[in-house]
Amino acid sequence: MPFASAEFSCHLANLGVQQNVAPPNTHFCVGAAGKAVGRIKTQLHLLSNTEGTNWFPILSRAVYNLNKSVIPDIKCSPFVALHGFTPRLCIDNFLPPVRNRELHDKMRQQALDREQLRVDLVHYRSKMKRHYDARHPPVEFQPGDLTNP
């Protein structure tokens, strides 16, 4: 689970946020926190695919979208259920995502490494196919041929 990662926990600790993904203790909200975390993960995934970046710059937008979305089980958004009022739009949602050059270089290097691994794997598979084909010549069978048991 990416929200239990050390990087995310350290980020929250630096902001002074206490990380707690346990469901509320009310009978009608049991499981709502798990669904909320799932929605955050889904929205982060969708936003990171459209933005083409890491989760950090788009986290505030994903959380705002979650806070505004109504969960059918509790018939309100998680923010309204917790605080009693609708969330205010944060100015961070209007700012472009911050581009971290070091992170961008690391992501580019990982993409290059992944591509090199793919090329190596294709080369290895073709080499193994050549070895197999050299040791196992094709045998043509015709209808009615007898085979050895």
Features:
149 residues, mainly alpha, 2 domains, 54% helix, 0% strand, elongated
Summarize the structure.
The chain has about 150 residues and is mainly α. It folds into two domains: about 90 residues, no CATH class; about 35 residues. It is about 55% helix and about 0% strand.
Descriptive account of the structure:
It is a single chain. This protein is an all-alpha fold. The chain has 2 domains: 2-93, no CATH class; 100-136. The chain contains 5 helices and no strands. Helix 2 packs across helix 3 (59-68). The longest helix has 35 residues, at 101-135. One of its GO terms (molecular function) is nucleic acid binding. InterPro entries: RNaseH_sf (IPR036397).
| Total helical elements | 5
Count of distinct structural domains: 2
Number of strands: 0
User: Which regions have little confidence, pLDDT < 50, spanning 5+ residues?
Assistant: none
- As a whole number of angstroms, the C-alpha radius of gyration is 26 Å
Structural class by sheet pairing and helices: mainly alpha
Largest sheet: none
Helix percent band: 40-55%
Strand fraction band?
under 5%
Separation of the first and last Cα atoms:
53 Å
Gross morphology: elongated
Average pLDDT works out at 73
The secondary-structure element order is HHHHH
InterPro entries: RNaseH_sf
GO molecular function: nucleic acid binding
